[in-house]
Each structure stands twice: as C-alpha cells, then as structure tokens.
Design brief:
By secondary structure, the protein is of the alpha+beta class. Helix content is 33%, strand content 24%. The strands form 3 sheets. A 6-stranded mixed β-sheet has the order 8-10-7-11-9-12, sandwiched between helices. A 4-stranded mixed β-sheet has the order 3-6-4-5, covered by helices on one side. Helix 2 (61-79) packs parallel to helix 3 and helix 2 packs parallel to helix 6 (195-201). The radius of gyration is 20 Å and the shape is globular. Bound molecules: magnesium ion (MG).
Length: 324
C-alpha cells in the first residue's frame, strides 16, 4: 500500500468518528495523547479477527466493521467498563474504496452509539485481518472479574443463547443467507455488546464474563477463577422465538450451551440482589434469566427438568474460532 493510498484509508476513519474532550491529540500524530478521568482505572482489551477464521471474508464489510468493534466493547462490558477510545490495525489485500467505506461506516455507527473515539491505527498490506484495541474506564476499586463467585450465588445470562451459533451452523451446512432468519443472521453479524448491562451490574455482580465461546466454556472460566462449581437448568436457557421456530419442538441444547458469538453476559449475583436484577432487566428492557446456582462441588452440571444430568458432546460444526 503506497503512501497516498495509506492517507486515503486514513481519511475514511478520521472523518467518521466522534470527538471526545478527553482526547488531547487524536489521529494524525505519532501517538495519541489521552486524559483519563481522575479516580478511574483504565480497562484495556484487544482482539484480532482473521478472514475465514473469525468471519466470512466475503461478508458485508459493514457488518465486519461493526463486529470488529462489537467484540471488544463486549469485553469492556464484561468488566463493567464505560467505553472511551479505540485503536484499529487493518491488514488488507488491497485498499478497495467501496469495501473501506462500508467497513468504516459499520465501525463508526457502533462507535458513535457508545461515544467511542478512534484515536489511532495502522494499515498494512496482507491477508485481511482486523485488530482492534478498546479502552474504557472503571471507578478505582471496581470492575467485574471472573473470580468472585460465591457458593449460593445465582447465575444469570442476558439476552438469548444460540442464535448466532444457529445462523453459522445453517450457513456452514450450505443454506443461503436469504433462507436464514434475518434475526438469527443479525445476531451473528451484528452482535450488540451489553455495555449498559455491564455498567448496571458493576456494583452488584460477584463475577462476570462475556459469552464468546459458548456458555459452557465461558461459565467454566468463572468457576475455575472462583474455585467453585455450579449447576444450571437446561430448560431455563433463554431461546429466541426465531431459534425455537427454526428448530421446531426438537431443541438441540448443544447450540445454546456451546455455540459462541452471542456476546451476551454471564454473571453471578448474591440471592439478596435478585430483585435488583429484575429492576435492571425492566429498566434496560433486556431479558435477563437466572439459569443456575453456584455450589461448592467443582465442575459444571447441567440438569434436566426430571433432575437427570445432560452433557454436551463435541461441537463438530464449530469451524470458526471466536474472538474472546
Ligand atoms: Mg471476553
């Protein structure tokens, strides 16, 4: 990529981002200069998305732009951080204007929604790869971690599970995008990071994680970090109407349990705060479902209504590794 083309690529992004007062120096110098608020910690996260590993290379570039930022905002949400700044490293086979325009539009729309400013980046030539680093703020002493779940805590998830996994499964099985439910497809391509939920839960949740690799694996991270175990109730896992419609009466629990890409939050709360969670759910108009309980015995047990145990098998359709 030549110097003039590089400058052109930069234009796509400098024109489209929000301006924040805490950015002393943004794109254009050798470094950005930033002024974090006093009495706040800086939360930092980074994710790399590789074409045909983490997303379809021929996907609508606007959705790629959206998702590359969304997965990072989801990590900030898991900690309860308020998003502020973002950097972007873009590796492209060649700078195609239409692709870049659409990509930056998807990126910028989500950035605007969360008042996130792009403060710098880099562009190189090579196989399509997108690296995004996001920064957010959390009051000193706060921030939800994976460690902290206590025996007796209730386990919750936001939203619904398995939608993105089902869209991906249907696509990989050869279904045309046009035959796949718009709702399910949107969950795969345009995940909505649960930033507001993260902020609301920050002082209540004893532990939290975002679900990028599937509930089973991600909840297990909480259990390991918190040195405890859990049981969850299979029939309580929240499913969307489109998921149920697509699967009929024969629900494949494998998907909501092990498919990634939903980018919902999984968190634990002391039972005394149960009504607080219901209030947050109502205020944010966000489905929040209690799916299980933390217990002392290590391991994750999945119970059916008849109290029998159920274990997920190997997820053979998982061709994509997810950003975490
Ligand atoms: Mg994560």
């Amino acid at each position: 990529v030549g110097t003039s083309e590089f400058a052109l690529i930069q234009q796509f992004f400098t024109q489209l981002t929000v301006g924040r007062d805490d950015v002393v120096l943004g794109i254009g110098d050798d470094c950005a200069l930033l002024q974090p608020p006093p009495e706040y910690w800086l939360a930092v996260t980074i994710d790399t998305l590789v074409a045909d590993v983490h997303f379809f290379a021929d996907a609508d570039p606007q959705t790629i732009g959206h998702k590359s930022l969304a997965v990072n905002l989801s990590d900030l949400a898991a900690l309860g951080a308020r998003p502020a700044w973002v950097t972007l490293a873009l590796t492209l086979p060649e700078p195609e204007h239409a692709w870049l325009a659409a990509f930056s539009r998807g990126f910028a729309r989500l950035a605007e929604q969360h008042n996130v400013q792009l403060i710098g980046g880099d562009t190189t030539q090579g196989p399509l790869t997108i690296t995004v680093q996001a920064h957010g703020f959390v009051p000193v002493g706060q921030g939800m971690r994976r460690a902290g779940a206590q025996v007796g805590d209730l386990i919750y998830v936001t939203g619904t599970l398995g939608d993105a996994g089902l869209a991906l499964q249907q696509r990989l099985q050869g279904m045309a995008w046009s035959s796949i439910s718009e709702q399910l497809r949107s969950r795969l391509e345009r995940p909505e990071p649960r930033v507001q939920a993260g902020l609301a839960l920050r002082e209540i949740a004893t532990s939290a994680i975002d679900i990028s690799d599937g509930l089973w694996g991600d909840l297990d991270h909480i259990l390991h970090a918190s040195r405890c175990g859990a049981h969850i109730y299979l029939e309580r896992l929240p499913l969307s109407p489109d998921f149920i419609a697509a699967r009929g009466s024969e629900v494949d629990w494998q998907l909501p349990l092990t498919a990634g890409d939903d980018y919902e939050l999984c968190f634990t709360v002391s039972p005394v705060n149960q009504s607080e969670i219901e209030a947050i759910s109502a205020r944010l108009q966000l489905r929040i479902t209690q799916i299980g309980v933390i217990e002392a015995m290590p391991g994750l047990r999945c119970l059916r209504e008849d109290a029998s145990q159920w274990s997920p098998g190997h997820a053979g359709y998982e061709h994509f590794r997810n950003a975490d």
